[in-house]
Every structure is written in C-alpha cells, then in structure tokens.
Design a protein that fits this description.
mainly alpha; Amino acid/polyamine transporter I; 19 helices
Amino acid sequence: MYSFLICACVLIASYFIYGKAIEKIAGVDENIETPVHRLEDGVDYIPMSRLKLYLVHFLNIAGLGPIFGAIQGALFGPAAFLWIVFGTIFIGSVHDFFSGFLSLRGDGFTMPEIISKYLGPTVRKFVGILIVITGILVASTFATGSADLLANLTSVPTIIWLTVIFLYFLIATLFPIDKIIGRIYPIFGALFLLMAILMIGALLLNPSYSIPEFTTQGLYLTDKSIFPYLFVTIACGAISGFHASQSPIVARCMTTEKDARPVFFGAMVLEGLTALIWAAIAMAFFHGQPQLAAIYGATPSIGVNEMAVTLLGPVGLVLTIIGVVICPITTGDTALRSSRITLADELQINQEKLASRLKLAIPLFIVSFLLTFIDFSLIWRYFAWSQLIIASAVLFAGTAYLVQNKRHYIVTFIPAIFCTLITFGYILQAPEGLRLPSMTANVISAIATAIIAILFIRKYRD
C-alpha cells in the first residue's frame, strides 16, 4: 500500500512542480489571443470554461484506456506503478501539454497541420493517416468493451448493443460541440473519477486485500519482458498519441493560454492517477498471475464488473455501467469526431453544414463498426503501437518548436527518443510484428533510434 500511496502523491505534486516548469518553458502568455476569439463558428469553435474543458478533455482521453491497459499491465506487478508515474510525468503530460499548446498557437490546428509546420509535409501525411486510423481503432475497441459488458448484464446480444452505440456515435459526432459534449460530458468525467476513488477507497479499507510493494519478490508476474511490453500494454495511463488527436477539440474552445496547464497537463496527471488506481486494484483483487493472465489479451470489462460489484455491491454495478459503458462510449465518439476534423482539415472541407460532416463521418463509422468483429486483443495492441508513433512525432514537433524559440528542448527531446525506442522495439519483436529475437530487436531499435536522434539534432540545431 505504501508504494501505491507514494506514487499517487508524486503524481499529484508533479502538476504543481513539473507542470509549472513546462508551462514556463513553453512560453505560455495569457495576453495572446486564442483561436476561438477569431474563428468562432458555432460547431467546433465555441468558448467554454476551464472546468468544463478540463472534465471534457479528461473524459476524451480516458475512457477505457487507463482501466483496461492498467489491469492488463498489472501482470508486471509494481513495475507498472513506476511506468505509470514516470511515464505520466515526464512523457505523457509533456506530450499532452505540447499537443494542446501548439494547437492553441496555430488556430486550433489538428496534429497533421502542427507536424507539417514543425517537421515537414512528408511526416504530416504519415501522421495524418495514423491519427484517423487511431480514432477508428479507439472507437472500435471502446465500443466492443462497452457492448460486451452490456451483453453480459442483459440478454441482449452484443451486435444489438454495438448498433445502438454506433448510432449514438454518429449523432454525437455530428452535433455542435456545446450541444452534447459540452453539456453532458463534464458530468460523466466527474463520475468516471468518482468511480476510481470509491473503488480504491473500498479496497484500502478492506483487510482482505493487499496492494503489493516494490519489495514484493519478483517485480513482475509474467514471462513477457518489461521492455517493450509493459510500455505498450499501459499506454493511455502513461503516454498516448491518441490524446494529441483530442487536444485540438478543446484547444478550439479555450479562451486563454493560462488554461493550457490545468486542462492538458492536469488531465493527463489525473488519467495517470486513474491508471495507478486500477493497476493497484487489479494486483490486489486477483492476487497474482493466473487470474490476471486470464484477463490479459481479452476484453477486461467482465473483470472490471467483478471487481466493482465485489468491492461496492449494487453501487459498484451502477459505477461499472458508468465507467465501463457510458464513459468509453463518450470517448469513442470524440475519437471519431477528431478523425472527422482531421480529414476535414486535410481535404479542406468546411464543416458548418451537416451534409459536409455526414460525407466524412459515415465512411469512418462503417470501417470502425466492421473492426468490432476482429479479435479485441489484436486491435488493442495495434492501437497501442500506432499511438506511440503519433506520440513520438508530436514530441519531436514540440522539440522543434522549443529549438526554434531558443528554449530548453530537452524536456520533449528525451521523451521523443524514448517513445521512438519503444515503437521500434515492439514492432520488431511482437507476435503481430516481425517476431525477431528480443536481443536482436533491441539492438536494432537502439541503432535506429540513435540515427533518428542524430539526424534530428543535425537538422534543427543548425
């Protein structure tokens, strides 16, 4: 328990200490006019308050990510705590801050436009495609997790629930952001956080459960190596390039740059705390490898339901429906919304008319719906890998911005290198990748990452 509590305190303190430092390094200026003041359109550019943006963004980036990834990552034992804490502070929160801040400085630019500005048009096309694909994968996996649990709780088949969920996706994605997302999602964001707090509170007060410490024999409980599998398994709870696709949604509604740290850095810290909580609950509740191994590689929604009902009774069932059904659905629709916005910006299609939004949304929804029939674990792993590529590109773009403005670029450069290393390491040795021996894959990854780092420094420091 002490290891968990120390990690939680470190995460909270990071917002006030490291978050403040990142804000200063970036050059936040509340006197600079934000995009919403110039481009308000009644659809995507609409002024919203800091608190509302914070809760909306937290819900957009969270969903099932910090629950499912953390539960599966619990197989690695307390090592998962370390990755969640240090990943959130030095990589995830920095990534999220700069993805939002650079969008604020660029008329609410989506990530392809930001990448083009700082890294060039070639990287832009690649990242643009990945962002659209990632949005589709997120909607597919989150809808599947929600539908599976609903089918388990009712006698209604999964396919019916999937159809209902995707009909909602379509409606919410097409509506102006203040009609559904701005009004309802802050409430769901607060309830999602409440679920995690009540769950960990019930666990800590129950003497039947014990959260493992760093001193627990065998730092992890699986035959999978920590590098790179832990770093890919726990994605959204530590670093996720998917968040970069969500940042422009709220950046277009932000009325001052001073909101950047609370909304972008702060929401990621809160997601890290959420992941930390769920990893601790899974370790304590399932008591080791056999039970956790049954969850790894499958949809963990049934496991979440079991934990919630056992710890909180009927209240747990209600919270499960909110946390593993409603909240992921809301994240799924904003994932598709970001894909629509990205495509619209790339194709220069005005989105003020409903017909224009339908033209882009319907193909995205069809593809995402069809992907729900593919193995969940495979989709999840490809999502985790693809979002790391996006994260690397966003962090390199942040580094280019800092270099150009003669600021301390090391805060984004080192995380960019680390994400690149993980990306290479995973795809070279993973079962769904090239399946190279781990030693060979790691050496190649290190060499490739070093080459990219040298080339980047040579280009942007000259």
